[in-house]
Amino acid sequence: MLEILFVLGFFFMLMLTGISLLGMIAALIVAFAVMMLGGFLAIVIKMLPWLILAVVAVWIYRAFIKPDQPKYRRRRLP
Length: 78
Description:
Shape: elongated
Number of helices: 2
Distance between the termini: 65 Å
Number of domains: 1
Helix content: over 70%
Radius of gyration: 26 Å
Structural class: mainly alpha
Protein name: Envelope stress response protein PspG
Largest sheet: none
Keywords: Membrane, Transmembrane, Transmembrane helix
Strand content: under 5%
Pfam families: Phageshock_PspG
């Protein structure tokens, strides 16, 4: 919600200062891209402890429970 208000405020400030429509569209695209990358980075940082926990859990599971041999055999061509 805050991002939408930022983009609208950015658009109106550019309009009030007399920037052309093409300049406003270019500035909005750049602002959108920067905010999207910032949001992705925030999500990665927020999820990082859970990702590390999942990796450790799988590592411990595989250390104690060995996988069985595969039940299929590779077919050899004559």
